[in-house]
Amino acid sequence: MKFVFLRSTALAAILSASPAQAQADPAAPAAATAPASAPAGLTDIVVTAQRRSENLQRAAVAVTAVTGDALVSAGVSKPAELTALVPALQVQPASGPYNLFYLRGVGNFNGNALSDGAVAFNFDGVYVGRPSATSGFFYDIDRVEVLKGPQGTLYGRNATGGAINVLSQRPILGQLGGNASIEYGNYNAVTGEGAINVPLGDKVALRAAGTYVSHDGYMKDGTDDQKDGGGRLSLLAEPDDTLKITLVADFFRQRGNGQGGTPVELGVDSRDGFLSPQGQAFMAHQPNTALGTTFTPLTTRPHLDDNYWGLSGTIDWRTSLGTLTIVPAYREGNLQFLSETPGFYLRQREKDSQASLEARLASSESHPLRYLLGAFYYHEINDVPEFYVNQQSNVNLDQYRQRDESEAVFGRLTYAVTPALRFTAGARYTHETKALDGTLQGAVRICTGQTGYFPTYTPGCPNAMAMPLAASVPPPNFNPFVDGTVTIPSAVDNTGANALHNSVGKVTYRLAADWDISPRNLAYASYETGFKSGGFYFTSDNGVFQPEHIDAWTIGSKNRFMGNRLQLNGEAFYWRYTNQQITHLILDSAGNAVFGTQNVGRASYKGFEIETRFLATPTTELNADIQYLDAKYDAFTYATPNQNGGQGNGTACPNVGAPAANYTLNCSGQTPPYAPKWTINLGARQTIPLSDGSKFMIGARSHYQTNTLTGLEFLPSENQSAYWLVDGDVTYAFADSRITITGYLNNAFNKTVIANSGPVPFSFYTATSLRPPRTYGARVGVKF
């Protein structure tokens, strides 16, 4: 693999113009494309992935950037839709407002406020702590940057898998204008977006933007719908040439039924859903291994009632020592939802508040020795009066308050040995403290009669009653022995003197080198470490899990050939992952069935990615992005409840020792979830100019990935087979390009794709959520 990149480097030197000193990119505002005066050829994207403005092709880091125009063309309105645009990224919708982020197979199932994401999500330079608060940003966007690999030195919060930076359009001084669009499609889809930029004198500008997205449910039971709305105000002030102040305020609300679920065994192509007549009939015939009877069909309609808002500022002050940047921010989320996506009811009320402050001092890029020094403070409180799980035979109610405090100092030094050769060293010290104060109340109902499953199902308690969907846990004497079951209560008290506390200090670092072979050819290599702090879960045992760690090696090359018309970038990577945090159902020593997070073993991720863009003619652009990923759990052992009547451990992993109340599983050698071996994105865009100055623009995109595991049990029912998704759009732009009319078609062949899945507890079937079916419609846009 190293030979491939050395050969690419040599080829770059041969095909390029004579070696010359690469020109440093001027510090520029975040802009999607190069100025109009740039030479003909592929447009450039300016990124700030390394905390400075630079051409994406000069950024010696593994990063993919998606422009705002590309997001609009692909119809991206929420994080899960990024999967089709960035091969390294897998984003899956989960219960309620939660999104699961995986980069090159590194991520975690984090379905509550007690665990952090392995991939850091940032909006306008502000870390967003909760994976449930990552929607609502995808309108009036300049670009999205996806950084692959640990971000242990430059970013506000450590992350093992990488970072997603969403950057909005900023106000423009002295310019009055705006844009608006309205879209209608099948499933009664209505999308409206707009923005206006208003100058307030010569040195101040205001930008206001808003969005509304609505469509009916993609599932037959009405779930998997969307009813979102939000707005954003941005203010830019530049009192003089040395000072720039930007303020951003945003608000977002989610309504509707939310993400739906359906049994895999019912057939995913039908998209029935648990609440449809077909889904209810299916559940009514499925054995509940704890109750000793069949499941009660789900009937209560799920809902989302979630609101989020935030305030942030960015102050850039150019001094003789460098540019001082200060970023204060506050964000708040209020969640109130009921979900049946996992095949059981999950109800949550939660208020999340976070405050952060980051300060950075960055030297000029014009000197051989360049530095960046910074400090970061983060404080978060999660108030959760209700995290309620009802699995019919098992009910848990968590009520808690969690506090998280993170402090860090970081720095990076770059020395240019020659104008074209640079070495970089960076380090960060992080100290994090967490505390949990709360309780768990639970109850499990167990059939006392003999239940048979094979060859036919013989219920041991045919009249057993499922736990009612209520605001509290049933009392210990709930229907005792009347229907042949016994109800066993459980409780965990982590309040007062029993509250849980954990703190950790960690140094992460980065070593790198990059070389401008020519002004249009760059080679780079790096080694970086990262970690994600631990946390808690409710259990009668030790409810503390420890940090996870990652080591990452990268070698890459970025190149432009053929007079700036052909772009060929490549990188090879090797990641070593230890103590990965996974969240799953656990049966503790007191018999409580709880969702817990544990550290499990080691994993390795290696592969390569090749990205190409080709301007075949001045009006024809082609692109291809191919990733190969070889991911494997090297050591992966964990425990899971014996919940299916002794009919195996419910996974594809062998047992370790004799089963008891729990199975101990050895899943070493398995491929991790969301780590397809091959991922390919292909695209083309053709512009057809007309004699009156108007034009047609025709675009096509396709996304392919090989078999992908979507759950942690490694079962065939959790496997999504290889698939292609094909999208297309046709746009007519009037002569002045101020008015455009677009027709679009997404998932043209109506491929059903599993998003995530998992066995329903105490059952023999699997619940899954799905990606969208075929959608199509028309969009009218205007610029003024």
Number of strands: 45
Cα(first) to Cα(last) distance is 51 Å
CATH fold-level label? Maltoporin, Chain A
How large is the share of residues in beta strands? Answer: over 45%
Number of domains: 1
Q: Can you name the CATH architecture?
A: Beta Barrel
**What is the CATH H-level superfamily?**
TonB-dependent receptor, beta-barrel domain
Extract low-pLDDT stretches: 1-39
Question: pLDDT average, as an integer?
Answer: 89
Sheet having the most strands: 22 strands, antiparallel, barrel
Question: How large is the count of helical segments?
Answer: 3
Class in CATH?
Mainly Beta
**Helical residue percent band:** under 10%
Rounded to an integer in angstroms, the radius of gyration calculated over CA atoms is: 27 Å
| Molecular shape | globular
Class from secondary-structure proportions? mainly beta
List the helices and strands and how they pair.
Layout: H1 2-15, E1 46-47, E2 54-55, E3 63-67, H2 68-74, E4 89-93, E5 99-103, E6 106-107, E7 119-123, E8 126-128, E9 141-148, E10 162-168, E11 177-185, E12 189-199, E13 204-215, E14 226-240, E15 243-255, E16 262-263, H3 277-283, E17 287-288, E18 293-294, E19 303-304, E20 306-319, E21 322-339, E22 345-362, E23 369-390, E24 394-418, E25 421-447, E26 485-494, E27 500-518, E28 521-532, E29 535-536, E30 544-545, E31 548-561, E32 566-587, E33 593-617, E34 620-635, E35 637-641, E36 662-666, E37 678-689, E38 695-705, E39 708-709, E40 719-720, E41 723-733, E42 739-746, E43 754-759, E44 766-770, E45 775-783
